[in-house]
Amino acid sequence: MIGGTFAGSKPRNLAIAGPDLAIAWADGHESYLPLARLRTECPCATCRAELERDRQAGPLRVVTQRPEGRNRVARMAPVGAYAIQIVWEDGHDGGIYTYELLRAACPCAECAAR
């Protein structure tokens, strides 16, 4: 699950780079976050409830086809000075991704060690 503590992390630049959200941070670090993971772990209440329901369903998983555009970004918009809102091509727009959450989600070895 996305999470962690990286207080004060601020991006200088955010861009879509193929299957990733590329972030250049003010401290010089760069993160490449898979869009599929960001969409799957959307922090909105609806998606969190869906994830919890899936966890409680037990070991049997029924996989349904996801809507086209689910992992593609239609647009991004800043939310104050602390987050971005991602609007996905499938129309979902409920997730507010804080900069702290995005920095904590960085999959690189340096960030994972924190």
In the CATH scheme, the class would be Alpha Beta
Number of domains: 1
Principal-axis shape equals globular
User: What percent of the residues sit in helical stretches (DSSP H or I)?
Assistant: 25-40%
Order of helices and strands: EEEHHEEEHH
Could you tell me the number of beta strands?
A: 6
> What is the CATH-assigned architecture?
2-Layer Sandwich
Strand order of the largest sheet: 1-2-3
**β-strand amount:** 25-35%
Alpha-beta content class: alpha+beta
Major pleated sheet: 3 strands, antiparallel
| Oligomeric organization of the protein chains | single chain
N→C terminal distance: 15 Å
Which key phrases capture this entry?
alpha+beta, 3-stranded antiparallel beta sheet, 25% helix, 114 residues, NE0471 N-terminal domain-like, globular
Which helices and strands, and how do they pair?
Layout: E1 11-17, E2 20-25, E3 30-34, H1 35-40, H2 45-56, E4 73-79, E5 83-88, E6 96-98, H3 99-104, H4 109-113
Antiparallel strand pairs: 1-2, 2-3, 4-5, 5-6
